[in-house]
Amino acid sequence: MVRIITRLDQVKRELAEHSHRTLDFNIGTISGDLRAIIAAEDKKFKAGEIKSIEIKPIKIEGNTICFMSAYASNIYGQAMAVGEETSLPISMERSADTALFAAALDCKIEENDLLGVLILLPIKLTH
Length: 127
Fold this sequence. Notes:
The chain has 127 residues and is mainly beta. 9% of the residues lie in helices and 47% in strands. It starts with 7 loop residues before the first helix and ends in a 5-residue tail after the last strand.
């Protein structure tokens, strides 16, 4: 009797783990979500200024890492980072309510302006 060994069962298990929720994208076997970073307040910037701005809250599930999309979504500048008042461990559920915005031009960011895009990738901690 010949036994054929493949990764098929492992792939089926990984797909089943992610099938309970809809993800925004896949890169090979890596799945993730995209979240718009939306201003929650009006704020004036001068060209070259980098300062924080309140954003509409973004839920970040535990064991998720965040990346900023490098694609410029706002003509006036780029969101560089997101965060909350108290930093929590990556294993805990978190929320972003503030963004760091770098202005390339003099501008007034208005509430509901798109500042950037946050990329969320689920991870499995190894220790």
